[in-house]
Description:
The protein is built from five helices and no strands. It is an all-alpha fold.
Amino acid sequence: MATISGLAIGVTCSLLHVAGSRQEGALVAAPATSAALARYEAAKEISDYAKVRAESGDDALVDPAIEEGFRWSLRLAEAAASSGAVTAVEAFQGHLDRMRNRLDVVQLLNAMGRKSKIDVNALRYFVADAELRVAQAAVK
């Protein structure tokens, strides 16, 4: 898992470098950088938690409905952008809005004891990932 995380961080850093070099100033690079850092921090927490769970013999991690919701929201954004139905920025902003709304719901459910902290962290990752996609679409 550390290799995959390291690869993802390397790719993210490369993308941020390219995105930052295409613009005048760092107005878009700064949000992308903070989104990339937030995504990394959430992934690190999930990775650390997964290691503890694996060592205890428990292989359940993130609620599959949360993962599935992210995948289909992202697919919708990609399909909307590639079809020309909306701009890429609008498509990924819609994805970001859906992920933020889902995070709000899961945080409330977590406070009521109905969702785990790992589910909250997974959605924090998905929100940061969506923020990064919005910022990257804005520089294209």
